[in-house]
Amino acid sequence: MKTANTKNRFVGKDILSVDQFSREDLDWIFSKAREMREVAQKGRTNLLSHAILTALFYEPSSRTFGSFVSAMQKLGGGFIPLQGMTYSSVAKGETLEDTVRTFECYSDVIVIRHPEVGSAKRAAAVASVPVINAGDGAGEHPTQALLDAFTIVNTFPKIDGLKVALVGDLLNGRTVHSLSKLLVKMGKVEFFFVSPKILSMPQEIKDHVNKRIQVSEVEKLEEVIGKADVVYITRIQKERFSDLTSYEKLKNYYVVTKTLMQKAKKNMILMHPLPRVGEIEAEVDKDKRAVYLKEQMRNGLYIRMALLAAVLGKI
Ligand code: ASP
Predict the structure, then answer these.
(1) Ligand 1 pocket test: which of 167, 175, 292 has the largest number of ligand atoms within 8 Å of its C-beta?
(2) Which residue among 144, 146, 297 is best mutated to probe the pocket of ligand 1, counting the most ligand atoms within 8 A of its Cβ?
(3) β-bridge partners, 133
(4) How far is the CA of 273 from the centre of ligand 1 (A)?
(5) Closest C-alpha to ligand 1, atom 4
(6) Between 20 and 30 A from 254 (CA), which of 42, 51, 154, 284?
(7) 112: CA distance to ligand 1 center in Å?
(8) Three-state SS at 271
(9) Global pTM value
(10) Sheet of 52-57, strands arranged across
(11) CA–CA dist 283, 92 (Å, integer)
């Protein structure tokens, strides 16, 4: 990995989609995330002591919300936590635009999660402070993709030739949408898209990825687990189903067990954006290849520290 000495091109910018990152940007963000790891491990700084973040979360979140709040505090800043919206004027019917206009008066950066695809873009269109997309429905989750890619490059510095299996609800999972688009920017990976047919990757993402690299679509994880360097499994996205009976049929479609892990490569990694709701048996957690409760989650803090300091112009 190159140590990027590029200048910060994110000052005052929104982070809405992985489409906006160049390969050089990624190297730069990852090198800043490594610096942030040092900062976070030592304690805190006052780099952003002038700044306040609004965390505007219209959908549930543990890690994204928690790591953004932690990132802001590690950097000495303050935050306004808005989760669930029961106690804000959203419950009185306030529009997204008016809510955003309100919180840009009180804060320097807005992190938003919302059930509608395109909502972060809508927020950014009215905000004069940077807006960071923390998940727009089944659309994108760019900061998750950055932390996922960071986890992958820290394990496998050479991306070319890497075999990556994305597994589960590829139709509705925003993390896999963003991650697949991001990884093809980084090198010649090979993808296995593993899903039941009705939850397969949206055509536009397949088209985008297919132009650049090789993709195989399969239904059975058993067919590819022995070949993959990275297995990235996801939850069936219950909240995106209009018909709960089909969710019930699909929810246990993939379960990674200790026995299945015996078929996987010795130096592969098993990832999950979390929360898991049965996709990985608890017994697998002890396997040294399981990184979802360790590096992957911690990397979210370092990446988000780097992004906040970048958009606020302090690195
Ligand atoms: N936490 C991730 C997201 O917000 C994954 C998930 O919810 O399944 O997209």
Answers:
(1) 175
(2) 144
(3) 112
(4) 6
(5) 135
(6) 154
(7) 14
(8) strand
(9) 0.96
(10) 78-83, 52-57, 109-114, 131-136
(11) 45
Spatial neighbors of 14 by CB under 8 A, at least 6 apart, are 120, 124, 127, 130, 131, 132, 133, 311
Closest CA to 29 of 182, 160, 184: 182
Are residues 205 and 138 in contact, defined by beta-carbon separation less than 8 angstroms?
no
d(C-alpha 301, C-alpha 40), whole Å: 8
**Residues 190-218 pLDDT 10s:** 999 999 999 999 999 999 999 889 999 99
> For 50-61, how does the pLDDT look when each residue is reduced to its tens digit (9 = 90+)?
999 999 999 999
Q: Does 77 sit in the ligand 1 pocket, CB within 6 Å?
A: no
Distance 235 CA to ligand 1 centre (A): 8
Average pLDDT over residues 252-268: 98
Cα–ligand 1 centroid distance for 6 (angstroms): 31
**Are the C-beta atoms of 192 and 163 separated by less than 8 Å?**
yes
Q: Is the CB of 300 under 6 A from ligand 1?
A: no
Q: Tell me the two tokens of residue 215.
A: 């993709």
Atom of ligand 1 nearest to the CA of 173: 9
Cα of 237 vs centre of ligand 1, distance in Å, is 8
CB 135 less than 6 A from any atom of ligand 1? yes
Measure the CA–CA gap between 270 and 256, rounded to whole angstroms.
9
In the structure, what pLDDT confidence band is assigned to residue 258 with cuts at 50, 70 and 90?
very high
Q: What is the pLDDT of residue 5?
A: 54
Percent of the chain with pLDDT over 70: 98
pLDDT for 84: 79
Q: What are the Cα distances from residue 299, in Å, to 35, 37, 241?
A: 12, 8, 30
